[in-house]
Amino acid sequence: MRPVRKASGNRLTAMMQVRNEADRYLETVLRELSEFVDDIVVVDDASSDGTPDLCRRFKKVSNLVILSESLFGREWMLRSLLWKVAVSTDPDWLLAVDADEVYEDRAKERLRGLIDQDRYDWVGFRMFDFWGGMTHYREDEHWNLHRRHMVTLVRFLPGYHYFFPKMDLHVPRIPLSYRVLPGYRSELRIKHFGWVGSPEQLRRKYERYVALDPEGRFGNADQYRSILDPNPRLVEWKEDGP
Amino acid sequence: MYFIAFGGESPNGFAFTDLLEAIPGEARFFVGAATTTLTPGNRGQGAKRDGMGSGRAADRIPGIRRLSMDEARRLPPEHTMALVIEPLWVSAFCGWRPKWLVMLVPRKAYETPVQQRWADLVTGMADAVLAESESLYLQLCFRRNGVIFWDPYRSWEERRQLAIQVIETLVERGDPERMAVDQRHSLLRDYEMLADREDVKETAYYLMALYRYLLADSRAQQDLLTAFERAVEAGRPNSLITHYRFLSAILAQCGRVEEAVQAYGITAVDERAKEEYDRLVRWFEEGQGQLVRARLFLLNDDIRSARVTLGRLDGEAARRLSMEADIRAGRLEEALCRLTPGDRKSRAARRAIAVQEGLLHWMRGDRAEAIHQFLRAAVEDPGVLGYVLEMGDAEEILERIGRRGGGYDAARAQSLGQSVDGHDAGAQ
Predict the structure, then answer these.
(1) Under 8 Å CB-to-CB from A142, ≥6 apart: which residues?
(2) Which CATH class is domain A12-236?
(3) Best of B238, B240, B277 to disrupt the A interface by mutation (most A CBs within 10 Å)?
(4) Which candidate, A113, B3, B19, B363, has a CA 20 to 30 Å from the CA of B321?
(5) How open is the CA angle B217-B221-B224, to the nearest 5 degrees?
(6) Domain positions in chain A
(7) Are the beta carbons of B244 and A161 separated by less than 8 Å?
(8) Predicted ipTM?
(9) Which of B238, B240, B262 is closest, CB to CB, to A4?
(10) What are the domain boundaries of chain B?
């Protein structure tokens, strides 16, 4: 019988959902992931820019599912599908990564130590929203994710009951059922480049969110508006920072 | 036939009044106080005829005759049913055993540890158990057969019919389990009707899972997982233990033993549970699937299923689990019968066994031997002297109840003795 929790020899599988990421950070993200994970599972949400071809260039992408119709407006279905595909590879640990997230260098070195133990089942990291470029992150009332921990690394427990909230937008990338399992809050950091675009790109993102969630039912309407703030408070990123 | 209610108050303070009312007036007796001491716990106990629970006038059980314990012991046991709400009276039976013993578990908690200990023991030995609180009722259903929910929200007439049915079933068939199963089906239907209500969905599904499990219905799994999802969404961090762990019992009941072990393993997040999980895995890999099922039942407090499963097993591990299950079920005699000389090797084991033997002697009314056993155990652990003190507490509580009756009336007792079924009860 396979033990529920292994303290050594754990395989780490990264899982990503992607859509039209070929000209953004996907190549960097896949290259970085290839350095420290064992497999990468990708669900392509009906890209039209050659994203699947880019994924295929990386040997560690062991499973690529391409959707012909986008599930963007039904995010919980997309998250559930990605989870289903990822666990079908019989992983020990899963790292949920977006196509614009990069783990800091020291995190890559320490990840093995975080998964080769039998005391906790999830790990939370601090995520920094880079803004206006690759040197600064945003920090204010609405942009402070780095002060909390986001769970992106989880042990796969075969047979456990996994479920996602049935929401169309802002669905957590990890099933809710991990909330009641023991976890560890790491001080390691993730760089999020999703907001690094030009003012025009930010405006398009804002318009997309407002169109999908005009009343801020799944997110926060004030935060949507703050995307357009012409003078956000930015803090310089330091590689050896706390 | 005689029915004796053993209470901690007067008949008017007795929580199961409707049960007494269902008994023919000439056959009902009462051992307890003559006057009710009103406390927040018993004020307004009993139920109105509209079934909503507030008290009635002081004369609500006309004609019930009060007995002393000595008088009660003179009634012919083969024609007597004891209805016990104050379990300490059973410690005063001193070897007298009525043919039928029904434990009545009140809603309010017992005030002293000795009362709770005796409640557990009497619950184990009784022919049937009636419980006023649904949560206690469910706990007891997991401990033994023949448990009936004495629902305080049912109408007076419904409870009266239930009382008559319990008594008739006990007298005619001896085992009320069929009736208990019918009641579980009925309670399950009640919760199914609530399942769509958002405000009670988690509780309704959880209780549906419990009732389905008790009825061996595999749909318990889906109901439990629905309740678990709700509990997680509500931010209850302990739901891994309070909800999810029960899945291991459901899967074990269905014979899906490997999945059951893994479900338990997922919930094994502290050292003790991890040790249990390692042992379950080892037994499973050794091919001892039934032993694994029994252990999982015990880990989920389903002592009833554990005892049934263990009853079909041989071997040292099964014997040890059976002893644990018997003790948790309040079946001391059966537990002690399973002892082997090897069980007495360590000091701690000798002490534990002496305590259980002391309790058994106390239950049988052999006070001297009980004290002897407790003192033997106290040589190893002075803390055991607490049991001797508990014996004193028990007597004091019973004396206090008796004093509220204003003393023993010999003339009345004489007349009562002669009136019991037309001959001298004292000659029994």
Answers:
(1) A220, A222, A223, A226
(2) alpha beta
(3) B240
(4) B363
(5) 115
(6) 12-236
(7) yes
(8) 0.90
(9) B262
(10) 343-423
